Amino acid sequence: MRAFLLAWLVSATLSAQQPQPLFLTLDSAVTLAIRGATPVLEARDVSRLAGTLVLERYAQFLPDLQASGIFDQYVGNTLLSERDIHPTNTRFRDLGYHVSTTLNVFNGFADIAGVKGALATRNAADLTLARVVQTIALDVTQAYLTVILDQQLVDIAQQNLATSNLRVQQLQELVRVGKRPPADLYRQQAQAAADQSTLSDARNRVTIDEVGLLERLRVNPHQPLQLIQPAADTARLAPRYNDSDSLVQQAIARRADLQAANQTVVANQQDITRARSGYLPRVDAGAGVFSLGRFFDYANTPTGSLITTPQTPLWDQVGRQTTGELFLGVNWYVFDQFRTALTVQQARVSYDASRYADEDLRLSVAGDVTRALGDYGTALEQLDASAAGLTAAQQAFDLVNGRFQVGFASIVDVTTAQTLLVQSQSLRAQAVVNLELRKRAVGYALGFNPAAALP
Fold first, then answer.
1. Quick check: helix, strand or coil at residue 99?
2. Burial class (CB in 10 A: 0-12, 13-18, 19+), 110
3. Taking residues 293-297, what's their average pLDDT?
4. Mind listing the pLDDT tens digit for each residue in 340-366?
5. Measured between alpha carbons, how far is 441 from 438 in angstroms, rounded to an integer?
6. Cα–Cα distance, 194 to 133 (Å, whole number)
7. How many whole angstroms separate alpha carbon 27 and alpha carbon 140?
8. Which residue from 114, 286, 294, 402 has the least number of CB within 10 angstroms?
9. Alpha-carbon distances, residue 12 vs 3, 7, 17, 223, 428 (angstroms)
């Protein structure tokens, strides 16, 4: 009884130490990746920064507010003046404050351009984030379906190995009774060994691709993984997806990365206006209030004390002796050593670079759509070919295997037919997964979410 309880405790402890498998569907994998992927996190930070920039640019239309205070104490022989300046042995304290506000009235329209540029920058950051999310969704979808394909190839390899091992057992008995030559057995044993190696390679590919998927999800690569296989989607796209010219125009209007590039051009164009403001005067208006008080503990000279009248307490001095000010300032650089000219030229260079990038991306969008449609068409042809090839290979194998069972086909014939069947099954599985990936790639090229079905 004690041995039983000890064994149960050991088993329970080992089970508790083993990590629980992570169950994922395609949708949950994409959601997990979007939540934690590094490019998404970085894009979100940039988006928040752009939002703060907009707030800062709007605040330029508001007056600033500055406040300062002072408290000093002096002890020693300082130079003070009553009627003339002379050394005085004294100790006194100063207390004061200064509050001021300034409002920019005109700065060459730089603030208006700054707000427009900041809004465009924020839009570009948000659109870039949207495209990054789509990119991560496509990448994780490809990784997920690759693991699913690997698992299917493992199943095919296991079935193939089981068939080969069964034939080895049959040939062992046939060779024993003298109905088959030993060479057939040796050839089949070699084939079974090769099939075992193929299965090992297939299992290793599953492990490698699972690790790659977990890394994309930012999950511990040692985490056991259980994937839910999605339903096979071999349906063809709607007829409207055959019009490549129309699809290119739709992609140009919808693609978030192209819209982000357009907003970057707008932002850089506004930077030129901001830079040109240096050629114009700057006008500021402001107001302020300040007060300063001083209190002497003593102030002695060789002829006597300078303090001959009662002093007002320091706090009362600061509260009563207040001075206000209003000002209007105009600042205009007549010659700024070409700093403004350099700033304008730099802004123009950035604007031209963003415009070139926008034009290149526009051409790239058209190429992306064309390539995606071409890959989709090829995937359709491969799907049809794989279906026909699998049917023919299955029929050939059934026929040859039946003839082999009755002694009318050689071992070479049956192993060749079996190898062709395995190849056809693998090609069929690859074609089904590839078609789904190609359809999602079409959606990505058009600017849709690749994790969702095309409309």
1. strand
2. buried
3. 83
4. 999 999 999 999 999 999 999 999 999
5. 5
6. 43
7. 10
8. 402
9. 14, 9, 9, 20, 43
DSSP string covering 346-413:
HHHHHHHHHHHHHHHHHHHHHHHHHHHHHHHHHHHHHHHHHHHHHHHHHHHHHHHHHHHHTTSS-HHH
Residue that is written with structure tokens 């950051």 in the block: 125
189 pLDDT band (50/70/90 cuts)?
very high
Angle of helix 110-177 relative to helix 411-446, nearest 10 degrees, comes to 170
Output the pTM of the full model: 0.84
Q: So what's the pLDDT on residue 227?
A: 92
Q: Determine the average pLDDT of the residues in 189-196.
A: 95
User: What are the CA-CA distances from residue 137 to residues 13, 68, 144 (Å)?
Assistant: 38, 54, 10
Using CA atoms, how far apart are residues 143 and 212, in angstroms rounded to an integer? 7
115/422 Cα distance (integer angstroms): 64
Task: Give the C-alpha distances (Å, rounded to integers) separating 326 from 102, 284, 286, 330.
Answer: 10, 11, 6, 14
Q: Cα angle vertex 148, ends 143, 151, to 5°? A: 125
Residue 145 CA from chain centroid, whole number: 21
The Cα–Cα gap between 455 and 452 comes to: 9
pLDDT at 84 over 70: no
Mean pLDDT of 9-23: 60
Residues 277, 108 contacting (CB under 8 angstroms): yes
pLDDT of res. 141: 94
Across 191-207, average pLDDT: 95
* 296 bridge partner residues: 92
Q: What is the model's pLDDT at position 18?
A: 59
92: which strand partners?
74, 296
Phi and psi of 297, rounded to 5°? -75, -40
Q: Which residues partner with 326 through β-bridges?
A: 287
- The residue with tokens 């730099």 is 346
DSSP state letters, 258-282: HHHHHHHHHHHHHHHHHHHGGGS-E
What average pLDDT does this structure show over 185-195? 94
Q: Tokens at residue 418, please?
A: 């079996």
pLDDT in tens, 392-431: 999 999 999 999 888 888 889 999 999 999 999 999 999 9
> CA-CA distance, 129 to 40, in Å (whole number)?
7
Query: Rounded CA gap, 373 and 71, in Å?
Result: 76
Per the CB < 8 A criterion, the answer to whether 414 and 105 are in contact is: no
219 and 419 Cβ atoms separated by less than 8 Å: no
Residue type, 449: N
